[in-house]
Specification:
Elements (H helix, E strand, L loop, with lengths): L10 H13 L4 H13 L14 H5 L12 H12 L2
């Protein structure tokens, strides 16, 4: 079942991503779906359709586990309070 997702990204990033997807004859939605699936699918080592993830994107993985109850708003507020005091 497909669902709609709205993302806010830099226009330049979107334009480059669309060109990249087009050059590989894939839709940008399909590429993003495959990437997110590869991140969340713990049983599979390979993404669907033999979809290749670039080395740059793979290099962004940190291996850091974030707790399910992590309050990012509080963490960001604390960061700003420390930065501007």
């Amino acid at each position: 079942m497909d669902a709609k997702l709205t993302l806010k990204l830099d226009k330049l990033v979107i334009d480059k991503a669309k060109k990249y997807a087009s050059s590989r004859k894939k839709s940008l939605s399909r590429m993003i779906e495959a990437y997110l699936k590869s991140l969340t699918d713990k049983d599979s080592k390979e993404p669907d359709d033999n979809f290749e993830i670039s080395p740059f994107v793979k290099s962004m993985q940190t291996g850091v586990k974030i707790p399910a109850d992590f309050d990012y708003k509080k963490a960001y507020t604390d960061y700003l309070m420390e930065k501007y005091k």
